[in-house]
Amino acid sequence: MGLRRTARAMLAIAAAAMLAGCGADAAVPRSGPVPPVNPLPPKAREITTPTVPDTGCDAEASLRPAPRSGALPPDSALGRIIAKGRVTVGVDQNTYLFGFRNPATGQLEGFDIDLAREIARDLFGDPNRIELRSVSTAERLPALQQRQVDLVVRTFSVTCERRRDVDFSSVYYRAAQRILVQRNSGIRGLADLSGRRVCVTFGATSSGPMFALPNRPTVLGVDQWTDCLVALQQGQVDAISTDEPILVGLAEQDRNLQVVGDGLGFENYAVGVPKGETDLVRFVNGVLDRLRADGSWQRLYALHLDALGPAPGPPAPRYTG
Length: 321
Known about the structure:
By secondary structure, this protein is α/β, with parallel strands linked by helices. Helices cover 31% and strands 21% of the residues. It contains ten helices and 13 strands.
């Protein structure tokens, strides 16, 4: 009896195997499991030339403020903006805290966004008389040079090199450069980046300190800081290095990340203006002076940047001419 049961069981197994094979095409090769693919962000490539700062000018010095008064010449920067009925400002939509698109509302928000609206308020009496255009880090200079925008308010660090191509307002925010890493990375400062992989954005001044290391890291350039965030999360880079407020904004989106290390220098944010438009520079400096004096700068800090800790206060302006 036991033998018959065993035989029937074996026949059942054989039949099941034959049925499983029915309809299978022997010519089609069987494929194994496919490993996950984490592609690099679009346009990502290695940066091989360091950004060497030019210290041959007083980069922070800007023109003394002057209010708008009387009739404006139609060929002046302010005259064209007033005639247009709105101010066009290049901003970010990917940097949490300073300029980002709120996924719940679809609206652009952040410290830089509200600062741009304050400029529109003083121009038109209405903070909404503004056209916000998203520009990447590398697009800031060309957007001003080609007059695609009237101003750029986008964590725009003022440097001597950039002053050759565009003009700047007085400095409205001062930020230290630091490093963002995974919490278990073992990276605690600049020296630990030797031989590692570090992400920066094209056009940023953040790559300079990396090239000063004896065993310099591989520096990956991308379009947006959120591209760096994805690359770090996927293990394609070991760290991101840029201004501390940008890094804190990225860490707020992923609590497995932390900002580490001493400051690697400072970046001074100012409003970018097309070259030679002195009336517009003076007007913007007047707006920034108002924000410092009436508490609006502190209000915007409390609204958008409280994750950075107590407000340091706005940098004192330095004027010339």
